[in-house]
Amino acid sequence: MISRIDLRGDALPEGPALRDLLPRADFDVQAALEKVRPICEDVHHRGDAALIDFAERFDGVRLESIRVPAQALADALAGLDADVRAALEESIRRARLVHRAQRRTAHTTQVVPGGSVTEKWVPVERVGLYAPGGRSVYPSSVIMNAVPAQEAGVESIALASPPQADFGGLPHPTILAACALLGVDEVYAAGGATAVAMFAYGTESCPPANMVTGPGNIWVAAAKRYFTGRIGIDTEAGPTEIAILADDTADPAHVAADLISQAEHDPLAAAVLVTDSPDLADAVEKELEPQVAATKHVDDRIRPALAGRQSAIVLVDGVEEGLKVVDAYGAEHLEIQTADATAVADRVRNAGAIFIGPWAPVSLGDYAAGSNHVLPTGGCACHSSGLSVQSFLRGIHIVDYTEDALAEVAHHVVTLAEAEDLPAHGAAVKARFGWKVPESK
Fold first, then answer.
1. Does the pLDDT at position 236 exceed 90?
2. How crowded is residue 101: how many other Cβ atoms within 10 Å of its Cβ?
3. Most buried residue, 71, 104, 292, 332, by CB count within 10 Å?
């Protein structure tokens, strides 16, 4: 059901050579880019009409309007199962606790007497959030995107999710109910690349946004790449990933269950176990078969994901080598199920989020840990972070110098300007002192 990669015996290679030995899904955003280009430009030129036509083509429903009526949000919340509502409310509460603590305040550095630099943090003005609605419905993603944007102070927040033929062309009612709980009342029935284009260009119904965030399929990722530079994005999210670093102290039933939990997202989802215990590897393989057989989405998602080239059990000589492997892999979600897991986790450099020990499965982070589940994939954790309040803030430097403070450093400014052959830069300083550079004190 799942392949093995044996890295025992020889010294592990460094850098790209090690990354090339590890499993990874095929995810060609560049190829998809050429297919989304005409779709995005059609939305640019025809606005709402294009969105309505694409909804009929891709989602099988003819819309009268792309804007979701306020009554539909209220009805969805009123019809929400009480247990689901309680779970969503608790997820929102915990996410707010964590993300509220991420807020930044302005800080002033007194560089010299009379010369200071203040860094203030300003939220982007308008954000478009995306909630997928294809293979699964993700009200949790509504929370993970909306809460940090709200806690950052973003004033204008809109959300798009694909129209559903089963619900009269509206997004899934659980998505709408989550929006209502969060106070997000600007919602659009638009999916995939068309939703990103709607936010990037704006249409008759939807003003353009400064930034688009949220997970999605390869078409969403390609559209984000297409508009990078015009709008800010969180990340080009690829198929979900779990890596588990485990030794012989791990419970194979837990490890197998956690691998399956991510495999059920998508046939391209990656499930990787890194272990120095052949006995654990054997036991996990034995656990997979009955657990897979007992769950849902077996043939269309789980089995293809576990059997795909992106999933494997990787055998290493020890936890030390395992750390090198998981750092090279840079997983979206990394579980540490080893002896002294906290100390091992502290040494990890590359991961979107780290889950320590047997009682912190990735599923907890997906819904109710308080952490954010919008995380870098495809090895991007080596340079990128998950979604946070910081994602929606811009740091702006404010430079405030008196005449004396400028005079003190003027000769350095002029010297560096002339060294770079930019004499007008120096002249802009000289002009303030009668074209004579003050002597340094």
1. no
2. 10
3. 332
Which residue is associated with the tokens 């450093």? 409
In whole angstroms, give the CA distance from residue 265 to residue 313: 19
Give me 305's structure tokens.
């994901």
In the set 287, 333, 373, 408, the catalytic residue is 333
The predicted-structure confidence for 222-234, as pLDDT tens digits, reads as follows: 999 999 999 999 9
Alpha-carbon distance of 426 to 26, in angstroms, equals 52
Give yes or no for a contact between 275 and 314, defined as CB atoms under 8 angstroms apart.
yes
Burial class of residue 176 in the structure, from the number of CB atoms within 10 Å of its CB (0-12 exposed, 13-18 middle, 19+ buried): buried
pLDDT category at 135 given cuts 50, 70, 90 is: low
Q: What is the pTM of this model?
A: 0.94
> 284-307: per-residue pLDDT in tens?
999 999 999 999 999 999 999 999
Rounded to an integer, what distance in angstroms lies between the CA atom of residue 142 and that of residue 262?
19
Identify whether 332 is a catalytic site residue: yes
User: Residue 261: which H helix or E strand, with range?
Assistant: helix 252-263
Dump pLDDT digits (tens) for 374-405.
999 999 999 999 999 999 999 999 999 999 99
Q: Active site includes 333? A: yes
Residues β-bridged to residue 270? 241
Amino acid sitting at position 200: A
Catalytic residue among 151, 332, 335, 408: 332
Nearest to 206 by CA among 321, 282, 126, 140: 126
User: How many angstroms separate the CA atoms of 326 and 358, rounded?
Assistant: 18
* Four-CA torsion 179, 182, 183, 188, nearest 10 degrees: -20
